[in-house]
Amino acid sequence: MTHIKRPITTPPRTGLTREDLWEGQDRGLIKCWEIGRDRGVKFPELAQRCLAGELPVLGWKGGVSRSLKKNEKFGCLKYLAQWQGLRGEDLDIDLTQERTLTCSSTNMIVTFTPDRAKYVNQEPA
Fold first, then answer.
1. In degrees, to the nearest 5, what angle opens at C-alpha 78 toward C-alphas 17 and 75?
2. Rg from Cα positions in the chain
């Protein structure tokens, strides 16, 4: 499975094991998206920031709270999945591709990548 897609109308999954949720073919992206959907309901102001194009700090690498000297950084696909859920969007992530977004509040450019080595040891934002 190289492309993970789920419509926003899909109900949250239930009764799955930790292994099913985080270590399956989707690599935990569906769970991250479901968490984002849930947080979007509980924290509507956070959802609005995401809808406005902000990339707020979440539980995964990819969010930005300030501009850095270097205005580019890498983020993980789990962040992108949660962000799509927060925005109320369908889950749509290609596990073989990078996707670049620019944060509307900091103008930081974040490239979400399946290559963990690119984001693991970088300066936090």
1. 155
2. 14
Using DSSP, how many helices (H) and how many strands (E) does the chain show?
Answer: 4, 5
* Long-range residue pairs from 10-13, CB within 8 A, at least 24 positions apart, any chain: 12/37, 12/38
Q: What is the pLDDT of residues 2-58, one digit of tens each?
A: 999 999 999 999 999 999 999 999 999 999 999 999 999 999 999 999 999 999 999
Tokens describing residue 12:
């949250």
Q: Residue 108 has what DSSP assignment?
A: -
Token pair 């927060």 in the structure block, residue: 86
- Give the whole-angstrom CA distance, residue 118 versus residue 76: 9
